[in-house]
What we know:
The complex is a heterotrimer.
Chain A: H1 2-32, H2 39-64, H3 72-88, H4 94-117, H5 123-142, H6 152-159, H7 168-186, H8 188-198, H9 200-205, H10 210-236, H11 245-257, H12 269-288, H13 293-318
Chain B: E1 10-21, E2 24-35, E3 39-43, H1 50-57, E4 65-70, E5 73-74, H2 80-86, E6 88-91, H3 103-107, H4 122-135, H5 151-163, E7 169-173, H6 181-197, E8 200-204, H7 208-214, E9 217-222, E10 225-231, H8 237-245, E11 266-273, E12 280-284, E13 289-293, H9 300-307, E14 313-320, E15 323-325, H10 330-336, E16 338-341, H11 345-349, H12 356-361, H13 365-368, H14 376-390, H15 406-415, E17 424-428, H16 436-451, E18 455-459, H17 463-469, E19 472-477, E20 480-485, H18 492-499
Parallel strand pairs in B: 3-8, 3-9, 6-7, 7-8, 13-18, 13-19, 16-17, 17-18
Antiparallel strand pairs in B: 1-2, 1-4, 4-5, 9-10, 11-12, 11-14, 14-15, 19-20
Chain C: H1 4-9, H2 11-29, H3 36-61, H4 69-87, H5 91-112, H6 117-135, H7 145-152, H8 160-176, H9 179-189, H10 191-196, H11 201-227, H12 238-248, H13 260-279, H14 287-310
Helix pairs in contact in C: 2-13, 3-8, 3-11, 3-12, 3-13, 4-5, 4-6, 4-11, 4-12, 5-6, 5-11, 7-11, 9-11, 12-13, 12-14
Amino acid sequence: MKAGRLSLQAESLRYLVPYLLFGICWLVVATAVRGYGTLDHFLYIVQFAGILGLVSAGQTLVIVAGGIDLSVGSLITLSAVVTTQTMYANHLAFPAAVLCGLLASLAFGVLSGVGVGYIKIPPLIMSLVSMTLAKGAALLVTNGSPHEIRAQGFQDWVVKPGALGINGILQTWIVVSVLVILLMRSTRFGKKLQFLGSSPKATIYAGYNPKTLTVAVFALSALLSGVTGTLLIGFTGNSYLGMGDAYQLSTIAAVVMGGTSILGGSGSYAGTIAGALLLTLITSVLTLFSVSGGAQVAIEGTIILLLMIAYSTATRVRD
Amino acid sequence: MGKEETVSPALLETLGLEKSYGATRAAQDVSLAFEAGRAHALVGENGAGKSTVIKMITGLVRPSGGRILWRGEPVHLHSPRAARSLGIVGVHQEMTLVDTLSVGRNIWLGHEPLTAVGTIDRRRLALDSERLIASMGLSLDPARLVEGLSIAEKQMVEILKALSLQPSLLVLDEATSALGDREVELLHGIVRKFQAEGRAIAFVSHRMKEIFQFCDFCSVMKDGRVVFQDQTSELDERRVIEKMIGRDMSQGFPAKQPVPPGQDLLRVTGLSTSSGLHDISFSLRPGEILGIGGLQGHGQVELLECLFGLAPATRGTIEIEGRRLSPRRSADALRAGIVLVPEDRKTQGLFIDRSVEENLVACSFDDCAPFGFISRRKAGALVAGIVARMKIKAPDIKEPIRRLSGGNQQKAALGRWLPSGFKVLLLREPTRGIDVGTKFEIYGLLRELADTGVGIILSTSEIIELVGLSDRVLVMLEKGISAELAPGGISERTIVAASFGHSLGESHES
Amino acid sequence: MKASRARITSRIPVVFLPAAIFLAINIALNPRILTLRGLNNLALQTVSLGLVVMAQTLVVIVRELDMSVGAVVSMTTVLVASTMSSLHVLSIPLALLVAALFGALSGAIVAYARIPGIVVTLASSMIIGGLALVIMPQAGGTVDDSLSDFVNGQPFLVPDSFLLLLGVLLVWQYVKNTRLGTAIYATGGNAFSAYASGLSVAGAKIAAYTGSALLAAIAGLVVCGKTMTGDATVGDTYTLSSIAGTVLGGASFMGGVGTMAGAVAGALIIGILVHILFFLGLSSHYQYIAEGLILLAAVSIGVLAERRGKK
């Protein structure tokens, strides 16, 4: 019994670490910088982390299943511009326009999944292909000039604090978080994804279909990217080409910082949530100190690299 | 021991060599001598300790005790490179060829002749390769890519690779499993050359024919010890096999029940696959354990995989309970009630890095997660049931299954299918790498399952298991069926004979 | 079936066939290309792409991928443009050294920390690209005429940079025939066999990543000489193109197969395709779609041919 409790702790410890780190950073920042550390500030950070966290949910699932999705950024953009475009040019009602946007992202997710699952193209390359095609599609659909939206009700919901004092972004994030964590912990699909990432060869002997699993997980990731894109236009009132680009590599950073192994097979979205919070906090502090965009990317890359090395060495030492 | 008879001095001698892995003694008190100009065969069953001894003398594994003498001086072989520097070169079962390179490049890989400028001297490499190939009596084009070669040719290239290092002691560990008669003749030529040149050969093999063809001396290992040694001129095949497997284990096996007459559970007719199987026909009755024997690599894996839907058939039919079945995917086979416990539990049969719990429910989602959500209650009950039934010793079911012993892992690999209510159970090397106690637990369980009406197909290279468990045995040879042994005709002798294509109805030919 | 791999080595001349076809189409669309100047321009554009495809091919041969190729190109232009005024010619070896160090570091992490090269170089591309932006947030800097003269100059009727490419190919011919070259091909073909045969798998991987970084840096020099500026974003498109070119050039993701001649052919195909698209008057809106489709087609063909060959 005792052994059981210990081993459970050892696994969860890995995902607790980013929360601890976040707490430490928060305290440091709160004491060092004026105006930081308040509840308002926390909510401010959390809502930006929410955007990152939402799109990173899809990335978490894909990475746990043994893949990687580099198309998330351009799918955010695609969903957003398709929504605004169909509203503007085709005069669709907002809900229908959103649906179009989500379907557009979903289509590319399915494409990625088919490429990886059926043709066996390495996930990194296939998702880059989807990224490029999605960028092109966004360009075509908008003819180079994306639009703003006029959906006041939606925008208000997204931005203004509503039920329980939180806004639409946070409401969505909470719902998605619960769903994704439930998916991974308590559904057969979630377990199969973890099995797929852990021992891909063993899946056929267990009677699973790794091809359909792959399509499903990439489709989910695309859908979540689409949802993020929708929320983003609600947040800014605008859509522009390249609006999702910043998230592309940040999702990987958030997942890795959250303790999920880049090799797949095990992971927790709870960890990614902490990773997103931590990353957003670090980015905001860096911006505060006028650290340039380039330096921020370099720092993110260093963090990812160091964490991967640390996790890889730790796992090997344990065995 | 026969040492007094040696004329030439021993090149390599092991004295009381020992190797333990934790509590398991893989080899103990092994004293062997490999003499210059002689070919020394080392035989024994799976797990007898031969490979362990070979790995110790080629530097792959460090002995736990005992000494190794090279030309009379004690040596420590701490790496293959150290062994090679003395002139001890091993050819092991695992291929070390690079498919994308040519034969010549493979032979000289890592020790290519160089020009003055530091580049590889292509011309000399080609010449040296041709000379070496010709000296072996082969006609292989050194420029040909290894990828297109047959397995027999690849094994010859592996041997050439070892020869290029000019070994004083050449160790062949099951390195000839796929060689045909012609290649064996060529190998004999090499052996003769070695003998003439005063070099030594250590030869580990299951293939009696070769052992008697060109080895002077034979040592039999059993359960980690050397139990018998003599000149091959004083021995015959039957005696060697007796020494190898003569064991009192037969009483440990569960009693066989006569199979009740009735309709076939599984009937296979004229089955051929693109993986090489041709014209396989047999049937399986409920409650029957059908053993599949034969030398490794003669189609056993392909047969099981075809039945499980992993390798579709090109011709022939599979019928289960009278219904035609053409499984194109494992899910098809599962739906029909056929399950497979594959050979490699680490990469195929289990999700080795996941928890015991997760592994045990992995094939029962329909039971404990009918609407997608896993019911903890049902899952818990299911897992507890399997653990109890299989007697799996797992102190913490949330730990990765990697932590369990091999025996318990195998129990899990088999147990995970129990809730599915299968009709046909396919097993491939189910007790490989498992301690004896657990082996018999599994045997008992298989018999219990058969008694409930399940049909079991057991493919194993352990002859003991085939004899002790099977109601009938199919022996496979060259991807076809060499013999079907009925109850009463199943013995080590008949199985081994059929594996080589002999039938023991006639008088013995050794 | 058996000859599939053998066909790969003879695939290289075959790969030049589509290149020739594309060239013919290009000439048909734009006869001006047949002038010496036209050919020189074409050669110039292909050189940097060719070097980058060679870089990726080298890494693909050891069964890895290098996602930092584009970032190294950018970094090189930035380093040269920012230090040339003070260091003059020395800025070139400096840039090459920096690139080599980054490459060696990536290779070491891949080899010793056992992390897949794809993700290591993804992270390193962020670091290198980010640093390049820090050094030079806006495109600019100064580049001596000496470099651009070298790159654009034509002492033998052919741009110097083209000779540079030939020089690199000659160096590769030498390296390929050393034990190191064999180790690289063997590691990619079967890392276990290479190890069991006493080769240094780690050494091969480190060498491949270092070589890749150097080649990408040389490509950066060419780009810098052409544009006369340093630009931290100039390399962005090179990474994807390098992958497409590598596959089109006959290299295999399974490792152990690939040639530099094929890499050049692959680069030619990509370069000419772009040219054709440009002359067909396709608006830049279709640029991404075209890129994506080319990459998808190239990679699919490569992977499917691989699988068919395995049977």
